[in-house]
Amino acid sequence: MVPAARSGALRYRGPTVMRSMPFVHAARPRARRVPILAVSALVFGACTAETVPTPPATTSGPVATIPVPTLASEAPAPNPNPTDSPTPSPGIPQFPCGEGDPQCQSLAVVMQQGIEFTRPVACGPDGATCPLRLDTFAPPTTKRLPVVVMIPGGPVAPGTREYLWTLARVVAWRGAVVFTADYRSGPQWGGGYPQTFADVACAINFARDRAPALGGDPARVTLVTHSFGGFPGSVLALSARDFAVDAPECLAAAGDGRPDALVGVASIYGFDHIGPDFLAQMLGGTRDEVPDVWDATDIAVLARTPGHRTPPVRLLAGTDDRVAPVATADEFAALLREAGIDVTVTTVEGAAHDSILSKPVTVDAIAALIGATGY
Question: Hey, what domains does the chain have and what are their CATH numbers?
Answer without folding.
Answer: 2-79+93-370 (3.40.50.1820)
